[in-house]
Amino acid sequence: MIPVVREVPYGPGPVEAYRRLRHLPHPVLLEGAADAADLGRWSYCSADPIDVLVLDAAHWPTHCARLRETLRQQSPTHASPPFRGGWIGWLGYELGRAFDAQPTAPRDAFAATDGRLHLHDWVLAWDHLERRCWICSTGIDRHGVADTDRAIRRAAMVRDLLANDPTPAPSGRTIGRPLHRTHERATYEAAVARVIEYVRAGDIFQANLSQRIVLETGDDPLGIYLDLRDRAPASHAALLEWPDLALVSASPECFLRLDAASGVVESRPVKGTRPRAADPARDVSLATQLSTSAKDRAENVMIVDLVRNDLHRVADPASVAVPVLCRLDTHATVHHLVSIVTATLAPGHDALDLLAATFPAGSITGAPKLRAMAILAELEPVARGAYCGAIGWIGLDGSMGLSVAIRTMAIHGSRVAVHAGGGITLLSDPADEYQETLDKAAALLAALGAAP
Fold it and tell me: How far apart are CA 2 and CA 5, in angstroms?
């Protein structure tokens, strides 16, 4: 049972609350900055965690045991919100080695670990649909054992901090200057051509090839987040600030949503992209091109099949369904094709089993997944790190909410890594695929004062 779930005024909102709590250790913001009626309904903010788990794929069994130590079935007295405290953080793409043997590209400072999860005993939660907000304080210690007195004290601390005046908003911008690209146009197009050769040879059906741009910037991570949020509001926006790494994300893609009480799982793979256009007629034309594109629809359907396959490993086979296939979703900077895959976990399986069966997401790997990942390790010169991993939460009751960490920047010191990629199939055109990476990276680079 959650000792304290206290409703508080809806304002200040998530960003203002984050400013007021940011001086605490390890602040995190998971914000539904768009689509309040659906994926962006909930926002969460917390700081000052009671434990830190630095992930290493080689030690996943130990990490898994540590996580399960804190995950206890609960019967909350309050129906909202879905996440009331637990683990918040990121899972790096290379954590996939914990679940299937595979090669990886060389690491650098942006991918020094396979992820981080912090145990938060309290969380602020906003429901943007009903315009309500709660302080949820569990009172747990690092083993997940709750104490009501501690819960009351921590809730009072958060309430008092929210009453403080916010720190001034970051001001002044530094123009981000590209320092290094993993691929120039010619080398990226050559890598696309190589993937197409693998498809022709029957090795794979598709692979999601990416490039990385590293820039120098003196900007504050919160300032970068706010700029990106204005340019590309997203249902899975995130800002995580830790001493060794900060992440800024504007992901539109739901990787996994799990309700522990019902066992119902949902994944929403995104495949197929066109840029938005300022001219309304041109914008409609681009959207129509995408929704009628045989190449993009085939790419999406292939990944849906992969997701279904992954879910079959831990779900009741009869429950796996595709209620939405290749729906056109329009965002601030791009159009996407999105599908929805649902399932119900089979008895004896939990969030960590689900993660092992599905990570990393099919939409950012390829099909077949393991062979595609091996090819990507060959063609991408550096490890992805947080990019194409996952960002989100695992609740104390065993529920889970994770985004696919696309449209995500990693900040290490004064250097920022921006990745972008796209699915390569037999029908891909290398020049078009390169342009798609620029379209996807445009808002992130603009938030850094840079151009593609």
Answer: 7
Give me the residues paired with residue 266 across strands.
257, 342
**Interval 223-250: pLDDT, tens:** 999 999 999 999 999 999 998 899 999 9
Residue 281's H or E segment, with its range, is helix 280-291
Where on the phi/psi map is residue 443: left (φ > 0), alpha (ψ -120 to 50), or beta?
alpha
293 burial type by CB count under 10 A (0-12 exposed, 13-18 middle, 19+ buried)? middle
In a domain, 331, yes or no: yes
CB within 8 Å of 70: residues ≥ 6 apart: 86, 87, 119, 140, 142, 143, 144, 396
State the catalytic residue, choosing from 94, 253, 299, 436. 253
16 annotated active-site:
no
Identify whether 253 is a catalytic site residue. yes
173 pLDDT higher than 70? no
Q: Read off the pLDDT of each residue in 354-361 and give the average, rounded to a whole number.
A: 97
Range of the domain at 213: 4-447
Closest CA relative to residue 437, chosen from 395, 383, 387 = 387
Residue from 20, 27, 70 nearest 48 by CA: 27
Q: Which residue has the tokens 């060959």?
A: 378
Catalytic residue among 271, 369, 433, 440: 271
Q: Which of 237, 205, 244 is nearest to 222 (CA)?
A: 237
Supply the DSSP string of 1-42, one letter for each residue: --SEEEEE-S-S-HHHHHHHHTTSSS-EEEE--S-TTTTTSE
Asked, for residue 322, whether it belongs to a domain, the answer is yes
CATH number at residue 271: 3.60.120.10
pLDDT band at 327 (very low <50, low <70, confident <90, very high): very high
Q: Is residue 452 part of a domain?
A: no
Name the helix (H) or strand (E) containing 438. helix 430-447
Distance from C-alpha of 54 to C-alpha of 62, rounded to nearest angstrom:
11
Cα(22)–Cα(170) distance, rounded to whole angstroms?
13
At residue 77 the predicted structure's pLDDT band, cuts being 50, 70 and 90, is very low
Q: Looking at residue 449, what is its pLDDT?
A: 86
Alpha helix ranges (H) inside 163-255: 185-200, 221-231
Dihedral pair phi/psi, residue 125, rounded to 5°: -130, 135
Provide the number of structural domains found in the chain: 1
Is residue 193 domain-resident?
yes
